[in-house]
# Entry
Amino acid sequence: MQINLISDTVTKPSEGMLQAMMNAQVGDDVFKADPTVNRLEERVAGLFGMDRALFFPSGTMANQCAIKAHTQPGDQLVCDKYAHVYNYEGGGVAFNSGVTCSLVDGHRGMITAEQVKAAMNPYDFYHSPKSALVCLENTTNKGGGACWDVEEMKQIRGVCDENGLGFHLDGARLWNALIAKDESPRLYGELFDTISVCFSKGLGCPVGSVLVGKDALIEKAFRIRKVLGGGMRQSGYLAAACLYALENNVTRLEEDHTKAKEIAKVLDGLDFVSNVEPVETNIIIFNLDQTVSDEVFLEALKQKGVSIIGMGQGKLRMVTHMDYTTDMHLHLMEILKKFDIKKAS
Ligand SMILES: *Cc1c(COP(=O)(O)O)cnc(C)c1O
# Structure
């Protein structure tokens, strides 16, 4: 049995999703004439109670277009040191927008309003880069799938309002946070200027992200998406998968969270595992103690058909998802419980 917990992006479209894609009504979305893309964009804008939404081929492009729409070259954005926009988008903030990042040393990828105030430059201090944008991430990826406290986000919104800063949410895994905390998308629509959400993570779609936000910003992002080569033609086939996922694959995320918590509990009981970060959603981050190297552990798991990845700095990561079945789950728990580290090393 092969078990792949490298990411929640490894899922393949289900029969039902493929059927929905096959049956999609399509047109040329570059002319805004694809009825299924239009329906998805309206649906997501409605869910968040925001003006308008735009379909993207990737979460990275959605974030990058949002950052470009919010900033001018030379500006600075404020984010946590673990932020995906800083660490995992190929330096795109510099390449595409010509902006720098003021990094905050947050807790599990989450920062406070006080830290934002300290990290931004005063508007009239013209020697420093102009602070223009605050980017948050929910759930946090490198922070181990942690979910934000709404009150803290509201405080940060206040700091943005006082200082004329834009407020963007990288919500690649926002669906997980909504389910874990039983929150409504509208709550986020009221707080942020722009929000990106992914359909190719926990929701099981092959491709697709949406940027939702205020009209003027989405209008700018529409033009920027074109510049980056993100205008797609009969993309309704992909949007159909996203609409299917919204109907069928959101509430089931609870199951991924339960499995992740069960795995964390087993890991916590292994004597060569030194630390398991608290699990709130579908990401498990843990560290090994000195007796075993990450490479040896990863290779020994691989021999047993289990793939997971390292995130650097000694962090190992497993991510549960909809193609990780209950049979796989029971099998993995047995492998972990019986794991003989002496034999492996
Ligand atoms: C995956 C991810 C993205 C976007 O990734 P793509 O692979 O470009 O879709 C953005 N932010 C976070 C936090 C992510 O985990």
Summary: The two ends are 23 Å apart (CA to CA). The chain has a mean pLDDT of 97.
